[in-house]
Every structure is written in C-alpha cells, then in structure tokens.
Amino acid sequence: MSISLTDPHAQHGGHPSLQHHFDSLAQQKEASTLGMWLFLVTEIMFFGGLFTTYVIYRRSWSYAFQAASHHLDVTLGGINTAVLICSSLTMALAIRSAQVGKRKWIVIFLLATMALGLTFLGIKTFEYRDKFTHHLVPGPHFHWEGLTDAKDPDFADHVQIFYSLYFIMTGLHAIHMICGIGVLTALVVLARKGRYGPDYYNPLECTGLYWHFVDIVWIFLFPLLYLLGAHAH
Fold first, then answer.
1. How far apart are CA 91 and CA 120, in angstroms?
2. Residue 160's domain is classified under what CATH number?
3. How far is the C-alpha of 63 from the C-alpha of 148, rounded, in Å?
4. What is the pTM of this model?
5. Does residue 32 lie within any of the structural domains?
6. N or C end of the chain: smaller count of CB under 10 Å?
C-alpha cells in the first residue's frame, strides 16, 4: 500500500495519533503532559483558596464546626474514600495495560474506574438527600436542632457557614468527578477501537493525572469535614 507524500503523518513519523504541529510522539507527549500539570497547578490554587477559607472559619468558630460535622456520616465518607482509592488503582492498571499491549484490559480497567466513580457519586447523592431531609442545606429553610453554645448567639449561623463550605467543596469535587467520567467514556470508545498501545497511551496518562488529583482532593476533604466532629462533646 502506498503512502501519499501529502499526508502530514507520513512526512514526519507516520503514526496516526501524531498531530501535525509536533515532530514526534515523544515531543507531543511532553507537551501534553506539561499542559496537564499546568492545568493541575491552577486546580491546586482553586481548591487551595477553599481550603484556606475553611481553615480560617474553622479557627474562628471551632465548636460550631465540630457540632455541624456530627451530622455527616463518617461510615459513608470512609466507604467513598476507599472507593476512590480503588479507582486510582484501576486507572493505573489501565495505563499499565496499555504499556504492555493488553488492549482488552485497558477497556476493562477503564470501565471499572468509571463504575467506582459512579458509585462514589451515588453515595454522595444519598448524603445530599439526607441533608435536604433534615433541612441542613444553607438558605431560607435551614434549620439547626443540634448542639448550641450559650456564649455564641450566632451559633446556628456559624453552623450554616460550615454546611455552605461543605456543599461548595464537595459539590465542586463531584463536578470534577463527573467531568472525569465523561473523559473516561471517550477513552473507552477509543480504546475499543485499538487506539492505545505500547507506542501511544499519553491520553490515558494525562487523564490518570487528573483522576489521581481529584482523588487526593477528597483525601483532604474527608478528614477536614467528616472527622472534625470526633472531638466535639
């Protein structure tokens, strides 16, 4: 079969996944990996601002935050932590499968990662529904019936600030999970077509970096939000 000299892939490398503005797959991989790391740096700054806000308010109204944390289900939070850790493992195994040329296992491990991500979102949805049931969603219908502090006349308002941060931080994390599952869906479609193998698997690596970052964010959220009430009396 002849190769056209007008084909940009034929002119510098011949690999179908090589974009025309790169000289080689190695150069393309370095550029895309650098781009992903730069994106993750912006994400770190984004979540870092939320974590800083949480720490400031936590130091100002520690007892209110501890009392509010009692209404979070530590068991469900712990299960979700284990689920995400397992999803990081399956994501890593999908990349390894591509490196060794086991294309069927790429699809299997990507689907497993998606299933674990959807499990996480399902559990989080159940938790959110519980907060709506008990009127713990910030807004005009917020109602606090838990522990109070006579020295803090605005105790309920401070509890509401805790739940505002809870929904903002976990909600943004959930949005990142949904975006990640969307990308994984596209990867599964391409993997089924045999797109990835030992010579080209960079999209899997970049998606893996993103997925691991989202998991790490939750590993910080879990103790800050769920384990905070362990010392409240």
1. 15
2. 1.20.120.80
3. 9
4. 0.85
5. no
6. N
Across 56-65, b (16+ Cβ under 10 Å) vs e yields ebbeebebbb
pLDDT tens-digit profile, the chain (233 residues): 333 333 444 344 456 555 545 455 566 667 778 888 999 999 999 999 999 999 999 998 888 899 899 889 999 999 999 999 999 999 999 999 999 999 999 999 999 999 999 999 999 999 999 999 989 999 988 888 877 776 778 889 999 999 999 999 999 999 999 999 999 999 999 999 988 888 888 899 999 999 999 999 999 999 999 987 654 44
Evaluate whether residue 222 is within a structural domain. yes
Contact predicate 173/218, CB 8 Å: yes
**Tokens 């650098």 — which residue?**
34
200 φ, ψ (degrees, to nearest 5):
-155, 110
How many domains in the chain? 1
DSSP single-letter state for residue 101: T
Sign of the alpha-carbon torsion through 91, 92, 93, 98: positive
